[in-house]
Design goal:
alpha/beta, binds iron/sulfur cluster, 12 helices, 5-stranded parallel β-sheet, OB fold (Dihydrolipoamide Acetyltransferase, E2P), 424 residues, single chain, Rossmann fold
């Protein structure tokens, strides 16, 4: 059977598109391989919103081109956000590419493979968890962000369609559904004229055999009391809040067009923590945004020390064409931005160590992902506060369980970002 590989770069939203491309490819009688050297067809679903992502897309295309000249590969197809932003440049620069397909242009892909097929998803995640993209595009227009120019304005998927998708995922053995979008908190505002995430969660919570519902990308300006109360009241919704705040200084937040103030952000965090004591908050921060002074950065460090996010990621500002921030004065030197990012991550490592050490001796629920490849450990899983691929893991030393099982684990030890425990 002909083999294909799909290389999915970037975020969970892009992965959902890759799963549709994979489904169509298998409808054309290709078999998936993880080894690019074995593939006759290489599909690269690119990311293109910041410099690092664009560089990764280019190096992946060049590696595939190398395989075309030396290996089994007969056809290289490139799609995704990098294509949406730079179609002509890619066409000129990479003659090795056989087909360049626009973002989510599944119909053209079917024509290229000369097939008619329904649309479906071949899950590229572990079989027991899956992403559910609830909308695409974004209306927030943050000053540094190219995503609205790539993915367009916010477009929510109807409640009925999402419930149908969720039920079909659960019928296929999915236990954990991870809700993803550019801004999940704004779900439904375009389609229903109001935020519908609370209602969606209520409905998802009723789905039999669905065990965990996780929410990503909650924009801090759109977190309502109703949403916090809904998450608090629904047993299947993980008490995990992924809230990218990006910065805390009011002038920087204003320049970023984040539509939220320091006071509001602190208010939401305090409300979450007072209503849900076991809540875990994850955030992401940008260092080196134009105009960020040493004082602004000190304010951010003090804020991190105050809030002690259980999970945190930091990125340096990426100066992106066609974004308002591109032309701002007072661009910060890259090495200064890097230093600031490193200082944040060094501080966060201490905070994470303290948080996890505090769980030793406690019992928490863990979803088992797979057998561990690490010596001394039998299984690997994630707690309710570990999102797939971005947070830590739980390594199991004792007990029996299968991938997809949700078990109670007694924590016996902790590392910087990971936990160790035994099934009880
Ligand atoms: S919320 Fe802001 S950063 Fe996120 S996708 Fe929308 S415009 Fe970009």
């Amino acid at each position: 059977m002909k083999k294909y590989i799909i290389i999915s770069l970037g975020c969970s939203k892009n992965l959902v598109d890759s799963e549709v491309f994979a489904f169509i490819t298998e409808s054309a009688c290709y078999q998936q391989t993880e080894d690019p050297a074995q593939a006759e067809l290489i599909i690269i679903n690119t990311c293109g919103f910041i410099l690092d992502a664009k560089e990764e897309a280019i190096s992946t295309i060049l590696e595939a081109a190398e395989l075309k000249s030396t290996g089994k590969c007969k056809k290289m197809i490139v799609t995704g956000c990098f294509v949406k932003r730079y179609f002509e440049d890619i066409e000129k620069s990479f003659p090795e590419i056989d087909e360049i397909i626009q973002l989510k242009d599944f119909e053209t892909y079917k024509k290229i493979l000369n097939i008619k097929s329904d649309e479906g998803r071949k899950l590229l995640t572990l079989p027991h968890f899956a992403y559910l993209r609830i909308s695409d595009g974004c209306n927030n227009h943050c000053s540094y962000c190219a995503i609205p120019s790539i993915r367009g304005e916010l477009k929510s998927i109807s409640l009925e369609k999402l419930l149908e998708n969720a039920k079909s995922l659960v019928d296929r053995g999915v236990k954990e559904i991870v809700l993803t979008a550019q801004d999940t908190a704004q779900y439904g505002i375009d389609l229903y004229g109001r935020q519908m995430l609370p209602e969606l969660l209520e409905k998802l919570n009723e789905i039999k055999d669905l065990e965990w519902i996780r929410i990503l990308y909650l924009h801090p300006a759109h977190i309502s009391t109703l949403l916090i109360d809904t998450i608090s009241s629904l047993p299947k919704v993980c008490k995990y809040f992924e809230i990218p705040i990006q910065h805390i200084n009011n002038d920087i937040l204003k320049s970023m067009n984040r539509k939220v103030t320091k006071k509001q952000i602190i208010g939401s965090i305090e409300s979450i923590r007072s209503k849900i004591p076991e809540a875990v908050i994850r955030t992401t921060l940008i260092t080196g945004y134009p105009g960020e002074t040493e004082e602004n950065f000190e304010e951010l460090l003090e804020f991190i020390k105050l809030v002690k996010f259980e999970r945190l990621g930091a990125f340096t500002y990426s100066r992106e064409q066609d974004t308002p921030a591109f032309d701002l004065a007072e661009q910060v030197l890259e090495e200064v931005a890097e230093q600031r990012k490193d200082m944040i991550m060094a501080l966060q490592q201490e905070i994470s160590e303290e948080f996890l050490a505090g769980l030793v001796g406690k019992r928490i629920k863990v979803i088992i992902d797979k057998e561990s490849t690490l010596e001394d450990y039998i299984l690997e899983g994630r707690s309710y506060f570990d999102s797939p691929e971005i947070d830590g893991i739980v390594l199991i030393t004792e007990g029996k369980a299968e991938p997809g099982d949700i078990v109670v684990v007694e924590i016996t030890d902790s590392w910087e970002y990971d936990l160790i425990g035994k099934i009880v």
